[in-house]
Amino acid sequence: MKINSYLTFDGNCEEAFNFYADCLGGKVEALMRFSEMPAEAGDVPPELAERILHARLVVGDQVLMASDACPMSPYEGIRGNSVAINLDCIEKGERIFNALAQGGTIEMPFEQTFWATRFGSVKDRFGVPWLINCEVSE
């Protein structure tokens, strides 16, 4: 069994996942638009056509998935959770933290803590909160 995070965006899922692929060194392996739904699923309203129905980002053996929200429901942002990344290399953790922080908000600087060699939290420019944790130093 694997447990994966599934994020929801407000029309910028494709932009976010391309950004995450660059930040994390991953590859966007799926990017399906609402307009690509099979005909038997029904008509797609024009305002949904180019939104992302499903996205899949693969980083090593890990997967992050997402979609765009339907504009018929008010989008309330990503709240009450974070995407956590655990690494064993401080330099890689720092690189990822700094990349995710571009245009975002650093909530806790990437620094030594009592539980980790380095830890930091950042909310990226898409509103996704990330926790970057390095328990050991390489």
Secondary-structure blueprint of this entry?
Blueprint: E1 6-9, H1 13-24, E2 27-33, E3 52-59, E4 62-68, E5 83-87, H2 90-101, E6 105-111, E7 118-123, E8 129-134
Parallel strand pairs: 1-4, 5-8
Antiparallel strand pairs: 2-3, 3-4, 6-7, 7-8
Structure write-up:
Helix 1 (13-24) packs antiparallel against helix 2 (90-101). The chain contains two helices and eight strands. The mean pLDDT is 92. A hairpin with a 6-residue loop joins strand 6 and strand 7 (118-123). The chain has two domains: 6-68, 2,3-Dihydroxybiphenyl 1,2-Dioxygenase, domain 1 (Roll), CATH 3.10.180; 83-134, 2,3-Dihydroxybiphenyl 1,2-Dioxygenase, domain 1 (Roll), CATH 3.10.180.10. The two termini are 29 Å apart. The chain has 138 residues and is of the alpha/beta class. A four-stranded mixed beta sheet has the order 1-4-3-2, with helices on one face. It has a four-stranded mixed beta sheet with strand order 5-8-7-6, with helices on one face. Helix content is 17%, strand content 36%.
Summary of the model, kept short:
By secondary structure, the protein is α/β, with parallel strands linked by helices. It is built from 2 helices and 8 strands; from the N terminus they run E-H-E-E-E-E-H-E-E-E. It has 2 domains: 6-68, 2,3-Dihydroxybiphenyl 1,2-Dioxygenase, domain 1 (Roll); 83-134, 2,3-Dihydroxybiphenyl 1,2-Dioxygenase, domain 1.
